[in-house]
């Protein structure tokens, strides 16, 4: 007579697979927890209001395109040293645009709190210069607005600010 003995022992291979899935689940849950706790999801202030005004922004861009003005900036900045931003503004025929108020903003797209406001002075018709001291090297966004009595021109460019040269 043969008797069979049933074993209630769990196979080590199956136990290993189960533990592997448990570890993956716990690690993923930790990643989700830290991701949700460290980022609000908002990339810009007043995102809802900007979304509502999107059609107005498109219209303003069409008006600016029809105006035909063209801007160009020459940037002479390095981290921690005073420097200049020279902005040249021309109309659609290539002639300088005189008599506009030019202002600007330098800001880091990855770090708040280092924004630099630029006030420009007219050097000659269509040529304007602003001064700034940028505290850190790296990627910065330069935004410039030129306003006349009836027109608004907006211009933007990403620039790279180098370390100051010590030579």
Order of helices and strands: HHHEEEEEEE
Number of domains: 2
What is the CATH top level name of the largest domain? Answer: Mainly Beta
Number of E-type strands: 7
Query: How can the largest sheet be summarized?
Result: 7 strands, antiparallel
Distance between the termini: 98 Å
Percent strand equals: 35-45%
**The CATH topology of the largest domain, please?**
Immunoglobulin-like
Overall 3D shape:
elongated
| Structural class computed from helices and strand pairing | alpha+beta
CATH superfamily of the largest domain: Macroglobulin (MG2) domain
- Mean pLDDT equals 87
Strand order of the largest sheet: 1-2-5-4-3-6-7
The residue fraction in helices comes out at 25-40%
Please name the CATH architecture of the largest domain: Sandwich
Q: In angstroms, what is the radius of gyration?
A: 29 Å
- Residue stretches low in confidence (pLDDT < 50, at least 5 long) are none
3D architecture notes:
28% of the residues lie in helices and 41% in strands. The protein is α+β, with helices and mostly antiparallel strands and 167 residues long. It has 2 domains: 31 residues; 94 residues, Sandwich (Immunoglobulin-like). Strands 1-2-5-4-3-6-7 form a 7-stranded antiparallel sheet, with no helix packed on it. The longest helix has 27 residues.
Task: Give the gist of this structure.
The chain is α+β, with helices and mostly antiparallel strands and about 170 residues long.
Write the layout of secondary structure elements.
Layout: H1 12-38, H2 47-52, H3 54-67, E1 70-78, E2 81-90, E3 101-108, E4 111-124, E5 127-133, E6 138-147, E7 152-161
């Amino acid at each position: 007579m043969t008797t069979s003995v049933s074993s209630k022992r769990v196979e080590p291979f199956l136990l290993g697979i189960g533990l592997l899935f448990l570890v993956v689940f716990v690690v993923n849950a930790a990643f989700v927890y830290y991701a949700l706790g460290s980022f609000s999801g908002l990339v810009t202030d007043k995102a809802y209001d900007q979304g509502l005004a999107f059609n107005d922004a498109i219209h303003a861009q069409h008006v600016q395109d029809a105006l035909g003005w063209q801007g160009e900036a020459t940037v002479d900045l390095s981290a921690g040293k005073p420097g200049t931003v020279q902005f040249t503004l021309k109309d659609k025929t290539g002639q300088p645009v005189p008599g506009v108020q030019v202002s600007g903003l330098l800001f880091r797209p990855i770090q708040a709190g280092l924004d630099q406001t630029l006030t420009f002075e007219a050097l000659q018709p269509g040529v304007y210069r602003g001064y700034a001291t940028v505290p850190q090297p790296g990627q910065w966004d330069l935004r410039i607005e030129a306003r006349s009595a009836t027109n608004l021109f907006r211009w933007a460019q990403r620039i790279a600010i180098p370390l100051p040269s010590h030579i």
